[in-house]
Write a structure and sequence with these properties.
44% of the residues lie in helices and 17% in strands. By secondary structure, the protein is an alpha+beta fold. The two termini are 30 Å apart.
């Protein structure tokens, strides 16, 4: 609890930047976000406690440290687990700017030659790029209008953990001591679970379906619809959802190879993926 009579209060951290969320505050459940009248929310720099938390492997894996730090640095976010996934990268970039400044050194290796290069990323440009995108929440097919939403950070984390566990099982199958029959059985079970995860993610993303003047929002009815939909409709929905998700993740950096590297067989330009995790988040 904060003591309003603390004489040291004027030395407490202050907001460093104000940001708008790519979602504009939509898709946040009631009570999870305290949106301001201007649509801009303050972002405070990380504390020493926040930094230590970001270096705790177990908390990073299950997403708890990310949630705690977001709520510490952006008090207007009351429940970061409910963060729409389209806001997540923008929030992480804003935390990086507030804590360490607008530029971030990024290292890459040139394909073929392996030459190491260091670049200074302008994080403000990346943040502005998110705000230029628009999430399209409707898919039109035949006489249906399918209303979708971005999954939450909690849903994303749960899916990622389950996927990681199933993929870990695939690696175990390389063990020569395991009989072939057992490998086939385990593989089939894991494949079924991964397929079920894909279907479940799609079902969660559908908020309602409008057809013939009727709005269907009953989750059980939507699940039955997805389970019985033909493959073309399933593909259109998954492609649309994936396309919307990719709009709001940090785009790969386009790098130009040096003339010396090009002479040695390197491509003239190449992409380097950018991620914000504990290995590169700190100054």
């Amino acid at each position: 609890m904060s003591d309003n009579n603390n004489p040291l209060k004027k030395y407490f951290r202050q907001p460093k930047i104000y940001i708008k969320l790519p979602s504009g505050g939509k898709f946040w459940p009631e009570g999870s976000l305290d949106m301001t009248e201007t649509g801009e929310i303050p972002v405070f720099p990380m504390t020493a406690k926040d930094e230590i938390m970001m270096k705790t492997p177990d908390a990073l894996i299950n997403g708890q440290s990310t949630v705690d730090i977001i709520q510490s640095c952006i008090p207007n976010i009351k429940d970061a687990w409910k963060t729409p996934i389209i806001d997540l990268d923008a929030i992480l970039v804003a935390l990086r700017i507030a804590s360490y400044g607008e530029h971030m050194d990024f290292e890459s290796k040139t394909p073929i030659t392996g030459t190491e290069q260091t670049f200074a990323l302008d994080l403000r440009q990346i943040l502005d790029g998110f705000l230029s995108e628009t999430f399209e929440p409707q898919v039109y097919m035949n006489d249906m209008t399918i209303n979708i939403r971005p999954i939450s950070y909690k849903e994303f984390t749960d899916t990622a953990l389950k996927t990681f566990e199933e993929q870990r099982i695939f690696r175990v199958l390389n063990d020569e001591k395991i009989p072939d029959g057992e490998k086939v059985r385990v593989f089939q079970e894991s494949f079924k679970k991964l397929t079920a995860l894909t279907v479940a993610n799609l079902e969660r993303s559908i908020e309602s379906i409008e057809i013939e003047g009727q709005i269907v929002s009953n989750k059980r009815h939507i699940e039955e619809f997805v389970d019985n939909a033909d493959k073309d409709l399933f593909r259109v929905l998954t492609d649309h959802i994936d396309e919307q998700r990719k709009k709001f993740i940090t785009k790969p950096l386009q790098i130009a190879a040096t003339p010396e590297d090009i002479e040695k067989g390197a491509p003239e330009t190449f992409e380097v993926p950018i991620s914000f995790d504990s290995s590169n988040f700190f100054a």
